[in-house]
Design brief:
The chain is an alpha+beta fold and about 500 residues long. The strands form 7 sheets. A 9-stranded mixed β-sheet has the order 3-10-11-19-16-15-14-12-13, with helices on both faces. Strands 23-22-24-25-26-27 form a 6-stranded mixed β-sheet, sandwiched between helices. It is about 35% helix and about 25% strand. It contains 18 helices and 27 strands. The structure holds one RNA strand of 74 nucleotides.
RNA sequence: GCGACUGUAGUCUAGAGGUAUGAUUUCUGCCUGCCACGCAGACGGCCCGGGUUCGAUUCCCGGCAGUCGCACCA
């Protein structure tokens, strides 16, 4: 058996404690789907809330919530029906599959064969007698694979619909509303966190590649003649590690360490807006617990890029088990989408400049896979210490904020601890109460799900309302009075106080 | 989708053609004056379907699922 990986351990805890597990378990499971439990749901929501802090609230950007199933013409206009598909040809001998258009390109030197369509590809394969590159066997006719879920809308089934593979189209479809609600001023942005679906051929790596997941993305609309970002100065000194398109093409292994400001100045990042979002992204991911040295930005080569993109930088984080994993893409989509929807719908989406000229806004899009961020948080914060599992979740992400324990289960301590528990619930905290087993075991149970603070009720509490708070990360304890407790906890979770400021340090033993 | 390996309590495991080992978790007592203490007890399992067999969780075939490799990942 292969050795146990960090991901094995994390997914074992995830199942056992209720972060996430494979969906449809009782019917044998279905790959590509995961279900989030109590802890997982809460953690996911708090990651989303933090994303909103970094990408929506402070900039005054707008939000949107749009349907998952879209009529076919949306994806005709967006180019997905044309581009988001592939032709695969299977070998009759060895059974391997290959992309038919790529085989034709290799043999003939032609480019963008995919766009020629299925019939043309079939003819070219026959014409050039293309055989299996693996074993030389005969290839079957190429079959079209469209990784979008197709359905019918309405009882008569007359209207074909697809589940969206990205949320971005919603921001383009509703562009005119957003423009109106932004009081017809550019730049503005519309953000959405919602589910999308992709019919992956072979989902892998647990929750890393699934068929249904949450995307958090925003579309920033700007005038290409006025491409400055008003907040660029806030991030220009953020240092990132970069692999540029040129470096990717030359397969340079080392990363370029540079500031956002320099990278934009040197033309490595095409627009200030991309630079801005990449800088914010680095800060956001760091706030999730992933240190900067485990982050990098990697440019897409033209053939890797989406059909709409002029430049894309993936933000990647380092997983012990898998290496670098993409958690975000920051794409310069130009005016591709608005232009296509304008043409297809006949609706004018241009903006009038002061000099009387009109233009179609350009778009920069930072886009996150929430489920991958979720795994990144577990990856970044999990620690095995003295045979115990500890999740060093940032305090603003922790599903439960405070655990309350009686020191021992006698002499009225449980009753007193219940009172403290109820008080904290009334004050709005997420609290767990635990009196099973020894207090050490309860600390361990709370550590495993990342509860940052544990309040212990002991004989001093009975005597004079003094209790202790124990820190998950250092195991240090401070003491304070019950009356102070709600106030200092609030300050702690707002980030206004550090643990040692919460009370008087207790030295035991 | 193809190939290799794998599938046993909630979790992690041992094992054999005659329904199964151990640990841990959980629960109940006792204990416990601060880091998974100890004692006693309880709950709980052979992925699904077919075949061979007196008998299959074990062998064979298929499915489903997992890991890895190939392909794919806008």
């Amino acid at each position: 058996m292969p050795p146990r990986t960090r991901y094995d351990t994390i997914s074992e805890i995830a199942k056992r404690r209720g972060f996430f597990w494979p969906s449809f378990e009782i019917y044998g499971g279905m790959s590509g789907y995961v279900t989030y439990g109590d802890l997982g749901t809460k953690l996911k929501r708090s990651i989303e809330a933090l994303w909103k802090e970094y990408f929506v609230r402070k900039q005054g950007f707008l939000e949107l919530d749009d349907p998952i199933i879209n009529p076919e013409r949306v994806f005709e206009a967006s180019g997905h029906l044309e581009n988001f598909k592939e032709y695969s040809a299977e070998c009759t001998q060895c059974g391997r599959s290959f992309r038919a258009d790529h085989l034709v390109e290799e043999k003939t030197g032609m480019e963008n064969v995919e766009a020629m369509g299925g019939e043309a590809i079939k003819h070219l394969m026959l014409e050039h007698r293309i055989r299996c590159p693996n074993c030389g066997g005969e290839l079957k006719e190429p079959v079209l694979f469209l990784p979008m879920f197709k359905t019918e809308i309405g009882a008569t089934g007359g209207e074909v619909g697809y589940a969206r593979p990205e949320t971005a189209q919603a921001m383009f479809l509703n562009y005119k509303r957003g423009y109106q609600h932004a009081r017809e001023k550019l730049p503005f942005a519309v953000a959405q966190s919602s589910k999308v679906m992709r019919n992956e051929i072979s989902p892998r790596r647990g929750a890393i590649r699934v068929r249904e997941f949450t995307i958090m993305e925003l579309e920033l609309f700007f005038d290409p003649q006025d491409p400055g970002c008003p907040w660029f100065r806030e991030v220009e000194n953020v240092v990132i590690k970069l692999s540029t398109e040129e470096m990717e093409a030359k397969e340079v292994k080392e990363l370029l360490e540079t500031s956002i400001g320099e990278a934009v100045e040197d033309g490595l990042i095409l627009t200030e807006w991309q630079g801005y979002f990449m800088g914010v992204s680095q800060r956001f991911i760091t706030a999730l617990g992933m240190p900067p040295e485990k982050q990098r930005f990697r440019a897409h080569l033209p053939d890797e890029r989406a059909h709409y993109s002029a430049q894309t930088y993936d933000h990647e984080v380092l997983f012990e088990t898998w290496g670098w994993i993409e958690i975000s893409g920051c794409a310069y989509r130009t005016d591709f989408d608005l232009r296509n929807h304008m043409e297809a719908s006949g609706v004018d989406m241009t903006v009038l400049r002061e000099d009387g000229t009109r233009y179609v806004p350009h778009v920069v899009e930072p886009s996150y896979g929430l489920d991958r961020l979720f795994l990144s948080v577990l990856e970044a914060t999990y620690e095995r210490k003295q045979k115990r599992n500890i999740l060093h979740l940032p305090r603003e992400l922790a599903p439960y904020q405070v655990a309350v324990f009686p020191l021992v289960t006698k002499d009225g301590l449980p009753e007193k601890a219940r009172e403290v528990h109820d008080l904290l619930l009334d004050k709005g905290f997420w609290v767990v109460y635990d009196e099973a087993g020894s207090i050490g075991r309860r600390y361990a149970r709370a550590d495993e799900i990342g509860v940052p603070l544990a309040v212990a009720v002991d004989y001093d509490t009975l005597k004079n309302d003094v209790l202790t708070i124990r820190d998950r990360d250092t195991w240090k304890q401070v003491s304070l009075s019950l009356a102070e407790l709600p106030g200092v906890l609030e300050a702690y979770f707002k980030g206004e106080k550090d643990f040692l400021d919460l009370g008087t340090l207790v030295i035991r033993g």
